[in-house]
């Protein structure tokens, strides 16, 4: 019996040594890669959860006398970190632990920072799973040849829409707002007649870049000089394109634009969500609108500043368009990128306009409302 127990202990010890060596090698390789590419750190948020004294605890496995007084008792944290790394579960998060036990509990749920004023009262969390975006960035077939009829960005707004847009402000010489799209091919099922699966609602032409085009056009008409980038990353990168690297592609673009436009003040990354229609649609004065989600990167070191900016925005939105806002949500790396390029500028946020089951017309209505809110925010900041 004692011999068998000794053998089990030896095997366990060997297993732990192999784990420690493997993990340490992975960390070293990651640090080497990060030294060549400062953006590499965005592909994983696990480093931010590494406990203090971690490497001291690794050494203490093999050198018990090395365990310094300051690190006594930390072995449990080290084991928890190793298990969290291997299983991708935060053992300090009850929601993560219970997610596999209680039916309906979503372990990938983002955190509500500030509520919207959806009249239904229920919280509908953003549904995008950014770890599983299509590798090609679009559906299997090219559906752009015969898209469903959709309103043109040049359509004249209705009388009601004209009354909601702020009067023009004094035009400045340099652009102050940048609108772009990390997931530029996100589209809508109603606009792609031959597409039946929500997961395939991506298109080269009929996509969220139309929303950015309309937004910047109306902001410029309101006297707020704005830039729009409609880069099609799958076309740019070709066979090298990887949907999981979307925020690295857009990060490069944001840096390029910042280098030549020093006066840029606001940065809006426009998306659409993947939730069901009932969770992304609001009726305001008898008209259907695509509702808005605001996303803040929880792993951006300056997230508080971006959150403060988003709160100013959403307070105006809630006041002017009751029911249009879903709220401000924070996401870490478990729901996506976790930073979303928001470390590059303080006034940055993701705006998700409706969902995959909304129409382009509903989304355009929301963009017109969004123009009014941004114009008011701009005026308040300039006052």
What are the defining features of this structure?
single chain, 383 residues, alpha/beta, Aminopeptidase, 2 domains, 7-stranded mixed beta sheet, two-stranded antiparallel ribbon, 11 helices, 13% strand, globular
Topology:
Blueprint: H1 2-36, H2 54-62, H3 75-87, H4 94-98, E1 111-115, H5 159-164, E2 177-180, H6 209-221, E3 226-228, H7 233-237, H8 246-260, E4 266-273, H9 277-280, E5 281-284, E6 287-290, E7 292-297, H10 303-320, E8 325-331, E9 348-355, H11 360-382
Helix pairs in contact: 6-11, 10-11
Describe the overall structure.
The chain folds into 2 domains: 2-98, no CATH class; 111-382, Aminopeptidase. The protein has 383 residues and is α/β, with parallel strands linked by helices. Mean pLDDT is 77; it is low at 38-52, 64-75, 85-91, 93-107 and 137-163. The N and C termini lie far apart (81 Å). 38% of the residues lie in helices and 13% in strands. It has a 7-stranded mixed beta sheet with strand order 1-8-7-9-4-2-3, sandwiched between helices. A two-stranded antiparallel ribbon has the order 5-6. It has helices spanning 2-36, 54-62, 75-87, 94-98, 159-164, 209-221, 233-237, 246-260, 277-280, 303-320, 360-382, and strands at residues 111-115, 177-180, 226-228, 266-273, 281-284, 287-290, 292-297, 325-331, 348-355. It is globular and about 80 Å long. Helix 6 (209-221) crosses helix 11. Helix 6 links the parallel strand 2 and strand 3 (226-228).
